[in-house]
Amino acid sequence: MPYTFYNSTVPVFQSALQSLAQILKKAHSHAAENNIPADDLLSWRLADDMLPLAFQIHEVGDTSMKLVSRVQGTDPLPWSWEDIKTWEDARARISEAESLLAGVDEGLFEKRADETVPFVTGKGTRETVARGWVAIYGLPTLFFHLTTAYGILRNKGVGLGKPDYHLAFTSPWVADRPTSG
């Protein structure tokens, strides 16, 4: 696989969504085993002044969606974290984001890598080139919220380990490679 703008972004975002899905699958099992309504997990937080798990799930999906919209030049979908009220809503958000990434036009994505794209900050709308958006906003935001979701669940006793987070990222690269020895 050549190292291109597309190959260095879209598969990473896809892996993040797969990682989140794996983490949430284990969280759902934890809830069932401990007689906790799964929807209650969506309100869990690391600290009182932090946003809940539902927000973290939203941000991983929303950042993935915005990667597609920003780079392909379409309007972002009007997603809100407050729309994630149930476990099914959370799964649906991940599925929607996965579908958007699967539908990316690789040629258009490559063509627009150095074109200007808008993004919203606390200080209003700014502009940067698409690959700049990925570097300064997309990847940091994606990993912050994926890691925070993991941390929330781990802190609440869900039996998660590094492989639950990491395997989705390593599998595409090492699964088919022969081992030495």
From TrEMBL:
Pfam family, one: DUF1993
InterPro entries on file: DinB/YfiT-like, DUF1993
The protein's name: DUF1993 domain-containing protein
Source organism per UniProt: Cephalotrichum gorgonifer
